[in-house]
């Protein structure tokens, strides 16, 4: 009998601990269905705003010359209302909706759009490093974070996750504000503000100049954040940042994550990464005699 | 250290050829892009202006590749205006490619959609009998005819159609494709061009049981299967495509009907 | 005639723009002499404290599984007095002395030790991410930064550089505090707090658990910091973080650095990296028609 | 994705052999370490306890490597106490290796310094005539003699010295080396052991014009040429060594005189 890969992230019950990270392929229910079919325990939508956003001009997504990825898509999205009407047509595809906005009313308005959709949770993007007035600029404002999380909690009975990143304030204060306001879980981390300059032309490559670094390069940093949040305690964690193998996923779980999100590792069409990582976690659990993910969460701190 | 292939590498434009008053071919040296397969594309960075997907055009010089670009919005215009000696950044090639069958092939292209078909011709086996249908609105907009004939002196029949009848067969290229398919004898159809034209070509070929493939365009940001902007149903044009079989496309609710705008909104054609 | 590679970092005049980063091989004058012989424009010592420090137990330096390096040496050093007596024996080897401490008196006491040494500048380490009470814990305390920089400026006529990193406060506030207190240049950035966990044993690998990530993975982040400090203006910058090729170095100069430091790229015995990077910068300058480094500094912001 | 070779990889201890009351050999499977060259070392992580440099001991099983460790401080004791089935992490091998010349070689080792010499013997050409001098304080501490003889039945002469005369030649191994060198006929001398012993062996060989190399120990933190803790004059023992030529060492102000303590302070022997 294979070991069960199911896991609970607070009130959120997942059949496998691997999730699709926000912003990755996150605009189509058909694609969500495919990713769930590949074994993902849940899918997170692109971060949605009250109005549709075109995002920045290309180049918006490029490789980083250390095996990572650099993006400044500028949170392009069709808007919450349009997205909700798409979701309504596919009630068989459960999603976690990621939301981005500047203040409580934005978030309240958006949550109300998803009343009749198959939404299993909300992830609040408090950590996009390359769009003004939202994302990290919100996440760095600890008081505002508390108000937003509180407003969303009051607006929906669904689980609410706060996604944090490394901004110009102490991310742990953001975590604390979210926890105090009733967040059900923390997703850590988002991309890290970075840039690329082309030496030949002396030009910053991304049209927005600054973007977010993701993929393998940020893994040791993300792992540390998950470990630090787990040390703080009191809140389930979803780990994210540079996960591409089962070993990466296990490291995050040992650091304290109850589930993990995968983004950049899908690069090059590797949608099979979910089943590969799940299979590897299963083999690891068998080999080490773990009968449930929950028994592995945070073990590294107990060593 | 090895450079990440997804970081744009700067190339110098070595020659610029006007194909029509609004279409130009820019050539540059790049061993990797030079050996792209037909249907593959590159992401082309025009410094300070933008980045866009471009099918990789063949060059008659070994080790060179090219882009054939039509003036349209800001980035294509920026690329179009890049002079000899100018710098462009390239990453790729990305995507899959046409499955070249033996026997007789019908190639149906329009405008810059001819680019992957030109590369298909350049890589086709010697004994493939090729009929190339090139559609344009008017004679001014016809290009690549001589180029194709030069690349492949034998077993290539080039047929031009113009909507206004100023050159070749008068009428729409999809009508001409339907006529030719009606005559029979083709083992495969390959098409690239405006999506509504391709939808018709695919339907015509399938209705006659002929293997057909189309190379699809969508808005593309990453080329890596990450951003989702190129999605068509559950598929990603950048990594699952650009080339899809007619059997797959026939089931698609999007092909010929809708694409994702830059915001990701499903938008009808 | 080859293009001259000399550069000025504020009052600091260097024959080449590549420097040895602090903490890298930085405990022996013989090794400094060798590195200068390889073409480095300057060498920075290991960060020195008032008392000798043994540092943490091994593992202190390991690879990070994305091509980078993770370290928590714990600022081991023989102490400023011992180091000064070594330097006195080699007056022909000019060094930049890196200092670490908790408050002004530490720094004042150390500077006075180096009176008779061939010290061409001081770099204040305000950004070590893995030692309590010093490093980032100082750098994150903006007011303390101002006091320390001011005290060192008063204690010595030599150029004073403040080395910043990504801590839990906004690093730009640290930059501003240092500039306002009279710093002659900013070195950016130090390593980024990170960790490694071994999945097989479920144990954090570094004895200190947390360490600093360096090398290729942090390059796009470091490049962004240099660009942001240059956008702020008003202070010369020394770029540091993930530089291993001439192309990396050129990118940092285009972003706004007047010189660069190289650390992790020496890994595996690659002390020849200085001459290789210098040669590459020279070829680049010839090809692009630059006659001096100063003409390239910050060009990417002007594009 | 390829694992960074500088990240510790965990290996399971497959066997533990007591060599003396304070020295043990732990064997494990590792293809890369198994093919280390003599003089190379690994950084060995004892989870929860520490990491330390260890010469890579040969194994008689293909694909296996081993460490031979003497109980000393915390980490070596932790390694010594790792049972069969226990986990250790390894990275490496690091450093250069002995330059094995033809003819007659004198190997001079003491204690765990014999480890690189054992690997030298295992990789020496068949026609090399080897004299192995093994020094110990007392008979209890002698090990590897039978092992060496088993590894190389021919052209190997094993000579034991003990300071207290309880086994083999009474006296110091460096004195015996000097005597043997006085007899002449050696083409090369290789030594590894306590630094003062090596200093004497190097001087004796050089005074007679015989090629000599020594494998040096220093405090090591990184093994990568980064931290500087292993510096000896302007050289780094981890990347420029561990093996140095006698001609180089003779000029050294540090060899036999001083090493860097954990704080980096130059410390006399
Ligand atoms: C795989 C692939 C290969 C291509 N090969 C070529 C080629 O060889 N030669 C060539 O000239 N062009 C080619 N294109 C089209 C090209 O990438 C650009 O879309 C086109 O040049 C317009 O870009 P622009 O920057 O000038 O216009 P923009 O300013 O970006 O856009 C102008 C308008 O066109 C719409 N639009 C842009 N791109 C698309 C699209 N892909 N699908 C639907 N609507 C779109 C925009 O939403 C906007 O309304 C290819 C596209 C793809 C996906
Ligand atoms: C290249 C290399 C190969 C080695 N191979 C072997 C081997 O095969 N078998 C073996 O048993 N040991 C070997 N050693 C020695 C080993 O790495 C440790 O130094 C020794 O085991 C003591 O470590 P410890 O953790 O037990 O002691 P610690 O607790 O670290 O130290 C105890 C005391 O010894 C000092 N010390 C530790 N290491 C050194 C050193 N390298 N030089 C000078 N003083 C030091 C410390 O400063 C301290 O005072 C090798 C060392 C090197 C550099
Ligand atoms: C192209 C791209 C777009 C992204 N868009 C979003 C987004 O809309 N909302 C969000 O919270 N995170 C977004 N992210 C961040 C990812 O969700 C994830 O936190 C980050 O990429 C780190 O994970 P990874 O290393 O597995 O990619 C995006 C990342 C990428 C690469
Ligand atoms: C092993 C090691 C030790 C370091 N010690 C110090 C130090 O003592 N003081 C300091 O300011 N920075 C120290 N650093 C940081 C480097 O000086 C440099 O800022 C960082 O490694 C980024 O540069 P790199 O990517 O080129 O290595 C150390 C880095 C490493 C890898
Ligand atoms: S272009 Fe981004 S997924 Fe296809
Ligand atoms: S052990 Fe670090 S430089 Fe040699």
Summarize the structure.
Chain A is an alpha/beta fold and 303 residues long. Chain A is built from nine helices and 16 strands. Chain A has an eight-stranded parallel beta barrel with strand order 3-4-7-8-9-10-15-16, surrounded by seven helices. Chain A has a four-stranded antiparallel sheet with strand order 5-6-14-11, with no helix packed on it. In chain A, strands 1-2 form a two-stranded antiparallel sheet.
Describe the structure.
The complex is a heterotetramer, with two copies of chain A (303 residues) and two copies of chain B (269 residues). Chain A contains nine helices and 16 strands. Chain A is an alpha/beta fold. In chain A, helix 6 (171-180) links the parallel strand 9 (160-164) and strand 10 (185-188). In chain A, helix 5 (142-155) packs parallel to helix 6 (171-180) and helix 7 packs parallel to helix 8 (246-255). Chain A is globular. The two termini of chain A are 29 Å apart. In chain A, 66% of the residues are buried. The model of chain A has no long low-confidence stretch (mean pLDDT 95). With 269 residues, chain B is an alpha/beta fold. Helices cover 21% and strands 34% of the residues of chain B. In chain B, helix 5 runs parallel beside helix 6. Chain B starts with 8 loop residues before the first strand and ends with a strand. Classes of the chains: A alpha/beta (303), B alpha/beta (269). The interface between A and B is large, with 50 and 42 residues. One flavin-adenine dinucleotide binds at residues 41, 50, 52-55, 68-70, 72-76, 112, 115, 217-220, 242, 259, 261-262 of chain D.
């Amino acid at each position: 009998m294979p070991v069960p890969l199911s896991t609970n992230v607070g009130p959120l019950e997942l059949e496998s601990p691997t999730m699709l990270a926000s912003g990755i392929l996150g605009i189509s229910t058909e694609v969500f269905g495919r990713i769930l079919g590949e074994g993902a325990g849940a899918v997170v939508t692109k971060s949605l705003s009250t109005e549709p956003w075109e995002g920045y001009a290309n180049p918006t997504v490029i490789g980083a010359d250390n095996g990572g990825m650099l993006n400044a898509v500028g949170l392009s999205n069709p808007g919450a209302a349009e997205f909700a009407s798409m979701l309504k047509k596919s009630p068989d595809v459960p999603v976690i909706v990621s939301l981005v906005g500047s203040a409580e009313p934005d978030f309240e308005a958006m949550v109300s759009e998803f009343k009749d959709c198959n939404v299993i949770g909300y992830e609040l993007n408090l950590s996009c490093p390359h769009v003004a007035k939202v994302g990290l600029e919100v996440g760095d404002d600890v008081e505002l974070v508390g108000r937003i999380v509180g407003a969303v909690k009051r607006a929906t009975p669904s689980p609410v996750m706060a996604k944090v990143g490394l901004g110009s304030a102490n991310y742990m204060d953001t975590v604390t504000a979210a926890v105090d306001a009733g967040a059900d879980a923390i997703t850590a981390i988002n991309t890290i503000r970075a840039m690329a300059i082309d030496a030949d032309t002396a030009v910053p490559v991304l049209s927005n100049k600054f973007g977010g670094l993701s993929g393998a390069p940020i893994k040791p940093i993300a792992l540390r954040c998950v470990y630090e949040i787990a040390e703080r305690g009191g809140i389930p964690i979803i780990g994210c940042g540079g996960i591409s193998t089962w070993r990466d996923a296990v490291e995050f779980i040992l650091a304290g994550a109850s589930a993990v999100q995968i983004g950049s590792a899908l690069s090059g069409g590797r949608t099979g990464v979910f089943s590969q990582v799940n299979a590897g976690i299963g083999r690891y659990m068998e080999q080490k005699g773990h009968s449930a993910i929950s028994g592995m969460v945070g073990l590294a701190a107990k060593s | 250290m090895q450079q990440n292939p997804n970081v744009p590498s700067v190339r110098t434009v070595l020659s610029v050829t006007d194909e029509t008053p609004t279409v130009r071919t820019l050539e540059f040296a790049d061993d990797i892009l030079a050996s792209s397969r037909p249907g593959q594309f590159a992401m082309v960075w025009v410094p300070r202006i933008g980045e866009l997907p471009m099918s990789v055009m063949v060059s008659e010089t070994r080790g060179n590749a090219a882009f054939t670009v039509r003036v349209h919005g800001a980035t294509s215009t920026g690329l179009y205006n890049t002079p000899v000696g100018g710098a462009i950044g390239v990453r790729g090639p990305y995507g899959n490619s046409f499955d070249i069958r033996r026997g007789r092939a019908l190639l149906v292209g329009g405008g810059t959609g001819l680019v992957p078909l030109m590369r298909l011709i350049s890589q086709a086996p010697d004994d493939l009998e090729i009929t190339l249908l090139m559609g344009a609105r008017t004679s001014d907009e016809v290009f690549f005819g001589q180029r194709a004939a030069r690349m492949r002196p034998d077993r290539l029949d080039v047929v031009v159609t113009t909507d206004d009848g100023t050159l070749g067969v008068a009428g729409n290229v999809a009508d001409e494709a339907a006529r030719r398919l009606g005559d029979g004898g083709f083992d495969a159809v390959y098409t690239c061009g405006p999506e509504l034209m391709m939808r018709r070509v695919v339907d015509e070929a399938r209705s006659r049981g002929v293997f057909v493939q189309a190379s699809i365009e969508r808005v593309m940001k990453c080329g890596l299967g990450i951003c989702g902007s190129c999605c068509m149903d559950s598929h990603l044009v950048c990594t699952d495509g650009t080339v899809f079989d007619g059997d797959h496309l026939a089931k698609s609710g999007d092909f010929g009907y809708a694409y994702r705008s830059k915001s990701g909104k499903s938008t009808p054609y």
